[in-house]
Amino acid sequence: MVTRRQDGSAGDADYGRIGSGYRTYRQPEPVFEAAIAAALGDARRVLNVGAGAGSYEPRDREVVAVEPSESMRSQRPSHLPEAIDATAEKLPFEDDSFDAALTTFSVHQWPDLEAGLAEMRRVTKGPIVVLTCDPDLLDRFWLAEYAPAVIATEARRYPSMARIVAAFGGRARVQALPIPLNCVDGFGEAYYGRPEMILDPGARKANSAWSFVPEDEAERSVERLRADLESGIWDQRYGKLRQQESFEGSLVLVVAP
């Protein structure tokens, strides 16, 4: 059974509390949009599960969006279709209703991953595209040094690639997605070369892992980073990342044909 919060959120994060400024920091990154479009192929009718504010919904296809959180649905731009209030584990559609389906930065919040992916497979005739992070690769990001509790939280929440692939009966491929330096989708690793952004409370709030860390511990992590930026220690260790065109961290695209 999926327990839903006051604003309808069905996952572990309370988007009624942390989701108000999400769209300001989490814009669709064109590099990722292109990868998703390629994976969707020529599908015309597409389901977007855990659609949030609609960041990665294709504009040139018929899209049906599903999002349980009222606060996230309210942030969808007017040019996007209104999202249906439903959860991944119980999709209100007939079998084979869609040519393809996608879900982005969402599967780690589903109470029942296997049930949600099975539902996506039930209602989808063609490819299913999952944008997520590989928990085994999260420690590539320097934030693991400053905020180990945040990275540990993410590692616990994100399902392993083996688990996702197994949920598709072993028929899925995992593709690494390098992150561009000026990535406009402000998930944690997007700031690999712009560490000052981690000092921004709004940027942290748009990354749900920070909401699971005690406030005093999160503040100590931020102050350690602030001190190392001011002293130049961060740049001594990681300064080359400021000019590095891309970073291969934990971000992946899982495609089930």
Task: Please give the structural blueprint.
Layout: H1 15-18, H2 22-25, H3 30-40, E1 45-49, E2 62-66, H4 70-73, E3 100-104, H5 113-123, E4 128-133, H6 143-146, H7 148-157, H8 161-167, E5 173-176, E6 179-180, H9 201-205, H10 215-231, H11 233-238, E7 246-247, E8 251-256
Parallel strand pairs: 1-2, 1-3, 3-4
Antiparallel strand pairs: 4-8, 5-8, 6-7
Q: SSE string, helix = H, strand = E? A: HHHEEHEHEHHHEEHHHEE
Tally of contiguous helical segments? 11
Protein structure class = alpha/beta
CATH architecture: 3-Layer(aba) Sandwich
Number of domains: 1
CATH class, named Alpha Beta
Cross-sheet strand order for the largest sheet: 2-1-3-4-8-5
CATH evolutionary superfamily: Vaccinia Virus protein VP39
How many β strands by DSSP?
A: 8
In terms of quaternary structure, what is this? single chain
Give the proportion of residues in helices.
Answer: 25-40%
CATH topology: Rossmann fold
- The Cα radius of gyration reads 18 Å
Stretches with pLDDT under 50, minimum 5 residues: 3-10, 14-19
Portion of residues in beta strands equals 5-15%
The whole-number mean of residue pLDDT values reads 91
Shape: globular
Largest sheet: 6 strands, mixed
